[in-house]
Here is the input.
Amino acid sequence: MPPKGKKGQDKGKAGEEEREEPLQAVILADPFETRFSPFTLERPRCLLPLANTPLIEYTFEFLANAGVEEIFVYCGAHRQQVEDYINRSKWSAQSSPFSKLELIQSTSHSIGDAMRDLDSRSILVGDFLLVYGDVVSNLPLEGALAAHRARRVKDKNAIMTMVLREAGTTHRTKARGTSPVFVIDPAKDRCLHFEQMPNRDQTHFLSIDPELLSDHQEIEIRQDLIDCGIDICTPDVLALWSDNFDYQAPRKGFLYGVLKDYELNGKTFHTHIISDHYAARVRNLHAYDSVSKDIVSRWAYPLCPDSNLVQGQSYRLGKGNIYKEEGVILARDCVINSKTVIGRGTSIGDGSVITNSIIGRHCQIGRNVKIDGAYLWDYASVGDGSVIKKSVIANEASIGRKCTIEEGALISYGVAIGEGKTIRGEHRITRAKRRRESNEELVRGDPDLEVVGKGGDGFEFHDSDEEDEDEIVDSLISSGPMYNLANFSQESISTLNSDSEADDYEIRHDRSTSGSFLSVGSQDSQHAANFDHDASHSIHESLVEGHESANIQLELTALRMSTNASDHQVRRAVVSAFVKRIHQLINSGEAIKGAVAQIFGQYQELIDRAIFDKSQSDKADQVDFMLLLQADLSHKESGDAILLSAATKLVELDSIEEEGIIQWWEDNKSSENDDMKRVREKTKSLIDFLQQESESESEEDSEEDEDSE
Amino acid sequence: MAQSTVIQAPGLSTFLKSLKTTPVDPSVEHLISLLKRRQIRNSRPCAIATTALLLRVVGEFKGRDAAKLVERIRQVGRRLTSAQPREVVVGNIVRRVLGLVREVVDENADGQTPTGSEAPTPVPQHDSLHRPTLASSMSTFSPLKHAAAEPMHVGVYDGNMSDSGELSRRPPLLTSHTSYAPPSAGPLVNSLFGLFSQPIDTPSATSTPSGAQSPNGKTTFTQQNLERLGELSRGQTSLDLKGEVMEGIRELQDELETSDKQIAEVALEHIHANEIILTHTASTTVQKFLMYAARKRKFTVVHAETYPHDHTATHGVLLTGKKRESHADEDDEDDKWKPLTEAGIQVYVIPDSHVFAIMSRVNKVILATHTVLANGSLVAAAGAHMIAKAAKEHQTPVVVLSGVYKLSPVYPFDIDELIEHGDAGGVVPYEDGDFVDKVDVENPLYDYVPADLVDLYITNLGGHAPSYLYRIVADHYRSEDITL
Here is the structure.
């Protein structure tokens, strides 16, 4: 570490300059997760209504509260919707408290990528706030900012301050299932160690470096904190992200990793623990439920419905936390119980009882309906005599008469449920799906009358792929209704996806998880990081722009020469770029097979030029290629499905020979850990097929190989 | 740390600062969002922000059409009040400014007829504002009528009609000006009458001695009126509508500034030696009032701490004389004074729950208020109702201190609507997960105190019985403006 006195002086000057700089903030509007599917098929998460106000409004409010001036919104899927919304909102009006509000579209598929992308854009000049598009907080940030700046003046290596909210041992707003554990030195508010429970080995043991115990007088190990995802960062943070190109998640990956390498980089992280304001993230459906409750019960005051944050709202508070907008039509003997929000134009029929629920605008609720703890979004309608419990019913969905919607059901946009149906808690019903072979974004799926009843519209969210179905239903049953979905971690992207959602074929979630490469051969990752990054980047770029494969090859070769990269690295770059592009295509609505076929078919040459062992019997290069592919996909949602398609396609194109595939399958590395095993499961069918076939056709194949050489 | 000032949380001071540089419409939006986010709260900051904003609105208003100006102010006012309907003061200020505009218009229309020095050439747009029929509704003002009084454009009257209208409206105006002098100074005739009829405004039985009046204000007003007379006689064909209204608004600002002082000046008539005074909240008005009395008299103060929303401020006021340490830089002259104890006054801080127990020994209860309603009831910081009720039980007089700007023409038809509910976390810590999940916590910030629990109001105009407040309302607000 550099001598302190000198630094202090330098910083004194810099501090003065900083005063001139506007406070900047980055909103990660797309957290690259799928917690809110099927709703996020059609709408971006940040526009989902929370207590009848789009989530991102709360984030903007928070930032305006904190005195932020420049905002960069990082969009992933549904960019157009986000952009439209922001353009129409008051935040981009002349009167907006923000002097700059910019949308950034990126191709990244993980937070890590987004951060690296930000770094390369170098738009952030000074300290900035990093928040998610789903933060709900009424916290004034001056305290945290002042503390952060003071620390920066003293020590340039204090690069990040995390704002954490105290929340006892049990709390509804805390993340369930997985819990972050912070090891903090209270004297300096420094975060010494971070681990998410259950940790990587799926155990609940925290292993602390013994040095921490000897170096620090006092250590707090805290598990009672809500991590609301508000970070005050310095530009160094971005640089660190760039240096460590394999970090994906900000906490589990980045924070954990950098803290572990403290000896190496000397950067410190700090915490700002608050105990008197509201701060939470709507990170999953469980949090959606609890934050909604918090808002309705005025824990997040002044972020309440009756603050009418969005223009045109006119909520008024009545006794017992009942919020009604103007123009609500209530039948004389309907009963509105406490903690209810009802939007404009909604009409509620005779004898209906509404408790604890949030009902959007222009909803039609019939007679003798019982709604308890449910979330009805705008234009939903409920027929006479239905019973709705703790569930989410999205815009324009209609529930027929005498239906029962059980706890935990999710009913997506425009779904219609026929008369007398019972929707069980684990059902997620949607009308939209993404088609495999077409470029169209969303297609309406055919209604599955079994589920939605006569005259209904919609199908179960995951009913398209029979072989997957059992698996998914299983995992959902085991995890229970939606409020237990929170069992999945907050940012353990890979576990979440692999647990429940990675397997569905047809319906692609808007968010995939990670697009960059995970280094398998980590021994060369350090010194050749540049090559990896540049090469993958440039290939990807070219793919996006649809360049000729020959040109790409030329560029790649040049790059390889200049950095003296190994073949392995070339392959890795190719794989990572391909996977990234495939993911991108899938996200834009392409079906997996189509995307894979397009990319691998068009750029087959690139793969062939990276594999040099066609004539040998030991297909080391091909095995290596497949391993890289597998590793890269193992951390992604639906990686297994892509892997299957990719492997099939590669064999079809003969870029990888059958022997190569089989050798890969038998290679120890391909099944060395759980992730790898999981991702290759599906490919088993291909292997079985090939193994049968290879016995009879191996001769023929080898001939073809020579042809393609 | 010097750097803590780098990022200043938005609030009144940042708003006033930005008001100078930003154009009007964004400023309106700015204030709306500040109100919505409760970054400007409580009556005085709201009033200051609103007047400053309206000053700009009028200042940047283009055109000379009074009707349009009124419409413009109303439009801004509607948006401001709907942003935070419970800050009634915002609406009050808007109505006062609207009243100013109408005043200026009326004065030019009828101020010239009696002087008769020049042929009155009423500017056409005045006619649209002339509302002869409203003259009676001034004096017989009733809240139930306000729905009917939606009088924006009643059509165009010709000159004759407006003249005849003036005749019919003159007499009620005389009485209506008795208890106050409009800051913008009414027409000569009216204010001269006002000068003479001033004693009327202390209704004999119900009010405190007339010394509670603020005579200073009166004289200056008359002086201004004399000046204006000069202007009038010099020729009023081209009316400086904007200028006059702006001047009126500035006077309104002065009123906001001086109201505390004016209220404090009558302190000696209400606080006597060796009395025990009970009060609550960290109200500036009350503190100044007590300080003023403390210069001459020795008495004892019992201070209910108003847990949970105001207790920190209360403690701050009592210990240091400052409400909040963090905002030392803003509201300098407003937020800083010596604590009462330094003036030799004994102060006891008690929790709100002990109020009843100690009430038997209290001689007088002095309450600050958030808003005063037209029927004499008030909305004050939570706990006020309990204190007033306990005082009633012990027949202890309850005195409410309030600037006239807090007096609202609103009638409490729906009391729940008036009460702001605050952060539940103020009552139960949010960390307590079980509690948060299973218990509904309510934290009302204000209490509604019915009129019969209050014995006396002291405003910057003097003392009034609650039953008399409707008159002051009628004097300050035009009935056209009751519904914005």
